[in-house]
Design goal:
Shape: globular
Distance between the termini: 89 Å
Largest sheet: none
Keywords: Membrane, Transmembrane, Transmembrane helix
Structural class: mainly alpha
Protein name: TLC domain-containing protein
Helix content: over 70%
Radius of gyration: 22 Å
Membrane topology: Multi-pass membrane protein
Order of helices and strands: HHHHHHHH
InterPro entries: TLC-dom, TLCD5
Subcellular location: Membrane
Number of strands: 0
Strand content: under 5%
């Protein structure tokens, strides 16, 4: 079983590379990042749906069974995501599109998934981390595509940003804190699995600080724009009233 895992991961990596190559041919008039973002969006949707099914339906429940033996479906899910993270890390390093924080996020994800697969345990909580990390990913990619197509400064862009902030805060920060507590309180998980969970949660908080700053800037811009429109409307009404007299 253990010897078959590298083959599964290699197949997953090859599948993501093939999908990226197909997107590059299909959207050859767009940038390479456009195709990579489509791959990221695809993984985000697949990983979110699969990890949700594993955690909420197939089990075991990660909050009550951290450190439990891996199930077959969990292994499939981890191999799928490990192949993607390897692809995306190599792509980001080659094209130098991401900073140190995102690269660290990918490295910790790769190490955590690899450790869980090698140990044959703790896939329940690792799968839960993948769910929390990927549930906001489609919205993040949608935001990027809206910017690229010139549709970001619209109601659609505001809705995407709103749900991204709400989901990130509620799932990655709120539920993530609960998961980290259960992980640390349980004697079953290995210490390095627990350390990986703490690092991932710390990375989420660094992202959260940036998101809060972004949300504050955007809210202030919206408020000042509303004040400006309100002042113009009052001026026009008052000016029109004076002219009538």
């Amino acid at each position: 079983m253990l010897f078959a895992l590298p083959l599964r991961v290699a197949c997953s990596l090859l599948a993501w590379l093939s999908l990226y190559a197909w997107f590059c041919r299909r959207y050859k008039h767009w940038s390479y990042e456009w195709s990579c973002r489509l791959v990221t969006l695809t993984h985000g949707i697949l990983a979110t749906c699969l990890s949700a099914y594993i955690g909420f339906i197939d089990g075991p429940w990660p909050l009550s069974h951290p450190g439990s033996p891996n199930t077959t479906l969990q292994v499939h899910g981890l191999c799928l995501s490990l192949g993607y993270f390897l692809f995306d890390l190599c792509w980001c390093v080659y094209f130098q599109t991401e900073g140190a924080l995102m690269l660290a996020h990918h490295l910790v994800s790769i190490l955590g998934i690899t450790a869980s697969l090698a140990l044959g345990e703790s896939a329940a909580e690792v799968n839960a981390v993948i769910f929390g990390s990927e549930i906001t990913n489609p919205l993040l990619q949608a935001r990027w595509f809206l910017k690229e197509t010139g549709c970001y400064h619209s109601l659609t862009g505001d809705v995407v940003d709103f749900f991204f902030v709400v989901l990130f805060t509620g799932v990655r920060i709120g539920v993530g804190a609960w998961l980290m507590y259960c992980e640390l309180a349980s004697p079953k998980p290995r210490w390095y699995i627990k350390l990986g969970g703490v690092i991932m949660y710390a990375v989420s908080w660094v992202f959260m600080v940036s998101i809060c700053r972004f949300a504050r800037r955007k809210s202030m811009k919206k408020y000042h724009a509303w004040r400006s429109r309100r002042s113009e409307e009052l001026y026009l009404k008052t000016n029109g009233h004076l002219k009538n007299h």
